[in-house]
Specification:
The protein has 11 helices and 14 strands. By secondary structure, the chain is of the alpha/beta class. The chain has one domain (about 5-349): Metal-dependent hydrolases (TIM Barrel, Alpha-Beta Barrel). The strands form 3 sheets. An 8-stranded parallel β-sheet has the order 3-4-5-6-7-8-9-10. Strands 1-2-11-14 form a 4-stranded antiparallel β-sheet. Residues about 1-5 have low confidence and may be disordered. The structure holds N-carbamoyl-L-aspartate and zinc ion (2 copies). N-carbamoyl-L-aspartate (NCD) binds near residues 224 and 255.
């Protein structure tokens, strides 16, 4: 392994982002260069306004992403399909044959941004899940129940009991990624479960607890789903990410929303971190005294789970303070990145 850890500089095998929102159209063109600078590949989420429910839609979306790449920049979009109550099991076989679709995403209907077309009852998907298990197609899970009786902060923990355990009992060989985990419950569940399961962890859930949403007033740019949790949960996530356990890997969940959609009476969920993702992860691992564990988390564990080769090339992160811009363009609008106008203590070279 090529890791050279030192207090002021770290060189890693080029990392990937295993959970990313790129949107479409002019917004896609604005945000894509940020991820391309940071990552060699990304698992691209299918929650467009018109969800990416078929191989044909995924192929067209992939072409739009490739067409929006800055000239001379290499980046591989790893496409996903959006699971619905009606996903045809044969679509999974076509997806597996396509070679460019690497996973299928479960959004419980109503759980998050553009999830209205999501799954209302997982039992409706059992034939499709059967084919996924058989063909080794991973299921990526937004793991929150949507029941209004369940407290917002408990929705991930309740999901484990109500959905994840029955699902994994019925499909023990199905590859599952528990996306953007936010609780000690989820970290423990993934660490201890039998069979092919992994989890992505965002930089913001490693760095912040729920106080951040309310520090000095309501701060919509720290609002995402699943929502930030208590400090004890943040600490459990840091422990998981820095443990060296190959089940945990990097997924930014960078989720661009225009500033007017975030700073509103009913603001959208999502934090934008594509601009400075590796810097934020370096900060979190550095704070934990675990920079030597960053390469496994960012560059090795993901490809290992997905059965893809590790990237060639390296990136270098240096301890150096720089100021995040207040806004960046997003098509005809602007977006406010996480940490806008603040100092970040690491810089990617
Ligand atoms: N994470 C978020 O808060 N938002 C994501 C959707 C998601 O990943 O749940 C988005 O698409 O905006
Ligand atoms: Zn999600
Ligand atoms: Zn997401």
């Amino acid at each position: 392994m090529s890791t050279i850890a030192s207090p002021d500089s770290i060189t890693l095998i080029r990392p990937d982002d295993w959970h990313l929102h790129l949107r479409d159209g002019a917004a896609l063109a604005s945000v894509l260069p940020h991820s391309v600078r940071q990552f060699a590949r990304a698992i691209v989420m299918p929650n467009l306004k018109l969800p990416v429910t078929t191989v044909a839609l995924a192929a067209a979306y992939r072409e739009r992403i490739l067409a929006a790449l800055p000239p001379g920049m290499a980046f591989e979009p790893l496409m996903t399909l959006y699971l619905t109550d009606n996903t045809d099991p044969d679509e999974i076989r076509r997806a597996q044959d396509s070679g460019f679709i690497h996973a299928v995403k479960l959004y419980p209907a109503g759980a998050t941004t553009n999830s209205a077309a999501g799954v209302t009852d997982l039992r409706k998907c059992y034939q499709t899940l059967e084919v996924m298990q058989e063909t080794d197609m991973p299921l990526l899970v937004h793991g929150e129940v949507t029941d209004n009786e369940i407290d917002l902060f408990d929705r991930e923990a309740v999901f484990i009991e109500r959905v994840m355990r029955p699902l994994r009992r019925d499909f023990p060989e199905l590859k599952i990624v528990f996306e953007h985990i936010t609780t000690r419950d989820a970290a423990q569940y993934v660490a201890e479960a039998e069979g092919p399961i992994a989890a992505t962890i965002t930089a913001h859930h490693l760095l912040y607890n729920r106080n951040e949403i309310f520090r000095g007033g309501i701060r919509p740019h720290y609002y995402c789903l699943p929502v930030l949790k208590r400090e004890e949960h943040r600490l459990a996530l840091v422990t998981a990410a820095t443990s060296g356990d190959e089940r945990f890997f990097l997924g930014t969940d960078s989720a661009p929303h225009a500033v007017h959609a975030k700073e509103a009476s009913c603001g959208c969920a999502g934090c934008y971190t594509a601009l400075h993702a590796m810097e934020l992860y370096a900060t979190a691992f550095d704070q934990a005294g675990a920079l030597d564990k960053l390469e496994a988390f960012a560059s090795l564990n993901g490809p290992n789970f997905y059965g893809l080769p590790v990237n060639g090339g390296t990136i270098t992160l240096q301890r150096e303070s720089w100021t995040l811009p207040a806004t960046v363009p997003m098509g005809e609008h602007e977006l406010v990145p996480l940490n806008a106008g603040e100092q970040v203590g690491w810089k990617m070279r």
